[in-house]
C-alpha cells in the first residue's frame, strides 16, 4: 500500500508538471521468484514490492511495460537474447556481464548468509569452511569474492549444488553438507514450506541491488539514463524504493 500510495502521488505531480513523453517500445521486465518481493498471485499476475517498485520506476521514466516472473535459467537466457530488457538483481559473480549493463542507482541490498544446523557452533568465515562441505543453489549468482573463497585450494572445500532453495535447505538439514550459502530472502520462505524455523546463520556479504539491462535493446544506454533519472526523481519526491532483502 505504501508503494501504491507513493505511485499515485508522484504520478499526479508528474502528469501535471511534465510533458508526457512515452517511449515507443515497451520494456520487458523479468523477475525471479522471491516471495513477498516478486511472485505470482492467484490469477498468475506478477505482484510484490519489487514488482510494483520497478513498474513505478519504469512508468516514471516514460515507458510502458510487460512483467514476468521467470525461472532463473529462462531469465538469464532472456537477458542474453533481448527477450527480457530489465531485471532487478545481483550481477556480480554471474556470466551475464558481457550481455548487460547495470544502473548507477541501486534499490537496496541483497544479503547472502551462511547457514548451519541447529546445535552446531556458529561458523567463522572463511576459516570454518576448511575441509568442509558447502551447499550452493544452481544458477544463482554468488559474488566474485565468495567464489574465490569457495574455490581456494588451501581451504579444500567440497561444493554440492541443489536446483532449488527448498532442496538445498533439505540437504543441509539431512546432513548432506555442513553449511548452506544462500540468499536470506529465499531461505525464510523455503523454511516455511518445510514447516521449520530458518537455520541459524551468519551474514557473509551484502551487495547493492541494481537494475540489470540487456545490451540487446537498441536504446539500452538511453534506457539506463532514464531509469537512473526516474529513481533520483522518485527519491527526491519522498518515495521509498528500498528493496533490501532482510
TrEMBL record:
Protein's UniProt name: Polar amino acid transport system substrate-binding protein
Amino acid at each position: 500500500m505504501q508503494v501504491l500510495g507513493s505511485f499515485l502521488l508522484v504520478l499526479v505531480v508528474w502528469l501535471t508538471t511534465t510533458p508526457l513523453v512515452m517511449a515507443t517500445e515497451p520494456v520487458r521486465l523479468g523477475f525471479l521468484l522471491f516471495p513477498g518481493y516478486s511472485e505470482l498471485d492467484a490469477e498468475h499476475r506478477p505482484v510484490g514490492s519489487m514488482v510494483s517498485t520497478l513498474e513505478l520506476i519504469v512508468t516514471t521514466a516514460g515507458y510502458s511495460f510487460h512483467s514476468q516472473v521467470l525461472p532463473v535459467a529462462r531469465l538469464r537466457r532472456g537477458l542474453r537474447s533481448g527477450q527480457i530488457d530489465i531485471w532487478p538483481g545481483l550481477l556480480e559473480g554471474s556470466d551475464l556481464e558481457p550481455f548487460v549493463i547495470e544502473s548507477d542507482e541501486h534499490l537496496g541490498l541483497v544479503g547472502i548468509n551462511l547457514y548451519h544446523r541447529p546445535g552446531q557452533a556458529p561458523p567463522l568465515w572463511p576459516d570454518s569452511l576448511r575441509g568442509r562441505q558447502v551447499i550452493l543453489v544452481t544458477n544463482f549468482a554468488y559474488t566474485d569474492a565468495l567464489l574465490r573463497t569457495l574455490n581456494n585450494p588451501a581451504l579444500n572445500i567440497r561444493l554440492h549444488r541443489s536446483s532449488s532453495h527448498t532442496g538445498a535447505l533439505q540437504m543441509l538439514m539431512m546432513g548432506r553438507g555442513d553449511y548452506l550459502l544462500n540468499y536470506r530472502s529465499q531461505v525464510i520462505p523455503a523454511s516455511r514450506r518445510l514447516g521449520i524455523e530458518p537455520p541459524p546463520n551468519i551474514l557473509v556479504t551484502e551487495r547493492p541491488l541494481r537494475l540489470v539491462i540487456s545490451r540487446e535493446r537498441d536504446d539500452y544506454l538511453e534506457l539506463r539514463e532514464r531509469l537512473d533519472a526516474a529513481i533520483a526523481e522518485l527519491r527526491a519526491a519522498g518515495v521509498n524504493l528500498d528493496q533490501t532483502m532482510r
